[in-house]
Design goal:
- About 40% of the residues lie in helices and about 20% in strands.
- Helix 2 (about 55-70) packs parallel to helix 8, helix 4 (about 95-105) crosses helix 5 (about 110-130) and helix 5 (about 110-130) runs parallel beside helix 6.
- By secondary structure, it is of the alpha/beta class.
- The protein has two domains: about 5-265 and about 470-490, Aldehyde Dehydrogenase, Chain A, domain 1 (3-Layer(aba) Sandwich), CATH 3.40.605; about 270-460, 3-Layer(aba) Sandwich (Aldehyde Dehydrogenase, Chain A, domain 2).
- It has helices spanning about 5-15, 55-70, 80-95, 95-105, 110-130, 170-180, 195-210, 220-230, 245-255, 280-295, 310-325, 345-355, 390-395, 410-420, 435-445, 480, and strands at about 20, 25, 35-40, 45-50, 140, 145-155, 160, 185-190, 215, 235-240, 260-265, 270-275, 305-310, 365, 380-385, 400-410, 425, 425-430, 450, 465, 470, 485-490.
- The chain is globular, with a radius of gyration of 23 Å.
- Helix 13 links the parallel strand 15 and strand 16.
Length: about 500
């Protein structure tokens, strides 16, 4: 199923009536409420999603707590836990096309990306954390010879995960992998736009042998299901990926309830710094373009600011123009499409509002810049020059295919401009001087810094940010500690 007509036919016939997944089974919302599932590519309702609220969250948390307290999963032999998670990863791989289609129909992402990136990477994350289960050791502290001091990792209990709509399957896997491998139970609240892949992942987990109740999914409104999960007294931790304002609410909900742990992966305004000693500007231009226009700029770490020394800007822009001549923008179910439309009317209108700011303070459109209305969610790749560093265009997260260019007078000025936002999720620097690259990278306030590349991500490295980009890290072995508590057991041997 790789040709455009087949994908389009499947999309035109697809209906997505979906329910809540608790204790291994599907249920209607307790209230009977649903909300529309709108396909971005068709911009029409394709089904109904059960809208969970407090009662459904209570039921899901109770199921997760019951299985955790019983030790069914938590105390299982590590070898057996690993086998179940590996079987789960195998099933995810076998259902790659189905999962990719669900992801595409929900988010509007090109089907080629869902097939080649989202589905296989999510499978790899579950497989990778499965392999950590029998390879993660506890510690013996250097206590006196008449004592034994053990340091063990203990699972936290019930985890609440609230995930966004831009990469729902991958980001859900980032929470699921370490949380479940560590022995926790989890309740996932997917974004309203994108509930389908999480529900399928949960169904496959139970089919693989994961005990019922370990993995539950409650779709619903953030103000209802999301808030109820974050306020729940039996939830030990909230793992949230999303906007800064909602992240602040998550911290408040935790403080107002049981002081649960909170990890936040929030927004970004990632700088792409191009210094004048970068000689391969063609390679830089193509990478810079992918860093902002991939997924129509709907990426938290998107390289949405280009900071370039004046001497090379004109040549760099020429290469960007040339790249876009062959950059395929169009229907998400055309396998050749590299960028499709935005996720919703709401997001389209948000990006349009930023495009309205162009020209108010001397900004100049280099390419793109046209607004989209009606049923069309496709905004063309846009580059805006002469952007003031303190302007809204330079400071706020647009979350669309809009790249703003800021001139730097020299290397020191470029560093100052790169760090001149409240965000600190990611950054890149382009230079031919490796010593300069190391020094520059150390001074960048970002959780991930790329040198002469961008968006090279893998489960083996942690992901998260500084400042308004949040706290805590997804992925890597460090995430195991994020879903566990250290316990010291001191034994007197006298």
């Amino acid at each position: 199923m790789s040709e455009q007509p087949q994908w389009r036919k499947k999309a035109s016939e697809f209906k997505s009536d979906a329910k809540i997944f608790i204790d291994g089974s599907f249920f209607d919302a307790a209230s009977g409420k649903t909300f529309d599932n709108i396909s971005p590519s068709q911009n029409k309702v394709i089904g109904q999603i059960a809208s969970g609220d407090v009662e459904d969250v209570n039921r899901a948390v109770a199921s997760a707590k019951k299985v955790f307290d019983a030790g069914t999963w938590r105390d299982m032999n590590p070898r057996d836990k690993k086998a179940i998670m590996l079987r789960w990863a195998q099933l995810l791989g076998e259902h790659r096309e189905e999962l990719a289609f669900l992801e595409a129909i929900d988010t509007g992402r090109p089907i080629s990306d869902a097939l080649s990136v989202d589905a296989p990477n999510s499978t790899r994350v579950i497989q990778w954390y499965a392999e950590t289960i029998d390879k993660t050791y506890d510690e013996i502290a250097p206590a006196p010879r008449n004592a034994l001091a053990m340091i063990t990792r203990e699972p936290l209990g019930v985890i609440g995960a609230v995930v966004p709509w831009n990469y729902p399957m991958m980001i859900t896997s980032w929470k699921l992998g370490p949380a479940i491998a560590m022995g926790n139970s989890i309740v996932v609240k997917p974004a309203e736009n994108s509930s389908l892949s999480a529900l399928k992942m949960a169904e496959l987990a139970v089919a693989a042998g994961l005990p019922e109740g370990v993995f539950n999914v409650v779709p619903g409104r953030g103000s209802e299901a999301g808030q109820a999960l974050a306020r729940h007294m039996d939830v030990a931790k909230i793992a949230f990926t999303g906007s800064g304002p909602t992240g602040r609410k998550m911290m408040a909900y935790a403080a107002e309830s049981n002081m649960k742990q909170v990890s936040l992966e929030l927004g970004g305004k990632s700088p792409q710094v191009v210094l004048k000693d970068c000689t391969d500007l063609e390679a830089a231009a193509s990478t810079i373009a992918w860093a902002i226009y991939y997924n129509a700029g709907q990426t938290c770490n998107a390289g949405s600011r280009i900071i370039v020394e004046k001497e090379i800007k004109e040549e760099l822009f020429a290469h960007l123009h040339k790249f876009l001549e062959s950059f395929k923008v169009g229907n998400q179910f055309d396998p050749a499409t590299q960028m499709a439309g935005l996720v919703s009317n709401l997001q389209r209108d948000r990006v349009n509002a930023y495009l309205d700011l162009i020209g108010h303070d001397g900004e100049k459109v280099i390419f793109g810049g046209e607004k989209t209305t009606g049923h069309d969610l496709l905004i063309q790749p846009t580059l805006i020059d002469n952007v003031k560093p303190d302007s809204r265009l330079a400071q706020e997260e647009i979350f669309g295919p809009v790249l703003v260019a800021i001139d730097a007078t020299d290397e020191d000025d470029a560093l100052r401009l790169a760090n001149a936002t409240e965000y600190g999720l990611a950054a890149s620097v382009w230079t031919n001087n490796i010593a300069k690259a190391h020094k520059f990278a150390r001074k960048l306030r970002a959780g991930t810094v790329w040198v002469n590349t961008f968006d090279m991500l893998d489960v083996i490295t942690p992901f998260g940010g500084f400042g308004a980009s949040g706290s805590g890290r997804d992925k890597s072995l460090h995430a195991i500690d994020a879903y566990s508590a250290l316990k010291t057991t001191w034994v007197d041997l006298n």
